Amino acid sequence: MRGHQETEPDRGHRIVVRLDTLLAERGMTLTELAERVGVTLANMSVLKNGHAKAIRFNTLTAICQVLDCQPGDVLDYVPEP
């Protein structure tokens, strides 16, 4: 699933958010995803850019339902080099 732009992990964690890839594969915009999930575009953008400090399970569930994917498709762990 790599190839599209992916959000690099913050200094405090090694989690990569792969919403860009999933949205591109589905031809969906971040605005459409935010509307369908029921969160603000600002909050979805914070998540997409890897700056969220947490994600609620109900939000992750809704993202997975809308994008027809698994949590591991949205979030990835990258070990230290």
From TrEMBL:
CDD domains per record: HTH_XRE
Name assigned to this protein: Uncharacterized transcriptional regulator YozG, Cro/CI family
Coiled coil (residue ranges): none
Superkingdom of origin organism: Bacteria
InterPro entries: Cro/C1-type_HTH, Lambda_DNA-bd_dom_sf
A Pfam family recorded for this sequence: HTH_26
Single GO MF annotation: DNA binding
Residue span, HTH cro/C1-type domain: 19-74
